[in-house]
Structure formats: C-alpha cells, structure tokens
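Hey, can you fold this one?
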Amino acid sequence: MGKALAAVARQEGVGVESLRRWVIQAEIDAGTRDGRTREERAGIRRVKGENRRLRDDVAVLKAATTFFAAELDPATVDYGFC
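Sure. Predicted structure:
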C-alpha cells in the first residue's frame, strides 16, 4: 500500500502522511478499523467545551456568592453609628 499511497499523494498534491491518516480515519468511520469516529471526536470536543464554560460559570457564581455573603454579613455592615 506504501507505493500506491505515495503515488496518489503525489497525484493529489498532498503529503503521504496526511493521506495515510485520512485513509485510516475513513476506515474507522466505516467501522472496518478500531478507533474514534469523526462523530465521536466532535462530540468529545463539544463536551470538553461545554465543561470549560460550566467551570467558568461556577467560578463566577462562587465569586458572586462570596461578594453577596460579605454584603449580608452583619459584622461588615456599617450602620453609621460611630
């Protein structure tokens, strides 16, 4: 397969390694080879992005909770008596 791959890569103007990886991914997507399909990879990327956004949201909520808890703490309230 090496010579055929090199010939096709040359004919199409792409690198041999790129073409080899495309063939492997096509075999995975077709179910003839083990590995993660493009669909699975896209799903993993989507979930990782969602997790990152959720972590950011949690950090903002924690900061807001700390801020508002301090605002409501009677020890930190200035009643203007002194």
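The mean pLDDT is 91. Let me know if you want another pass with a different chain boundary.
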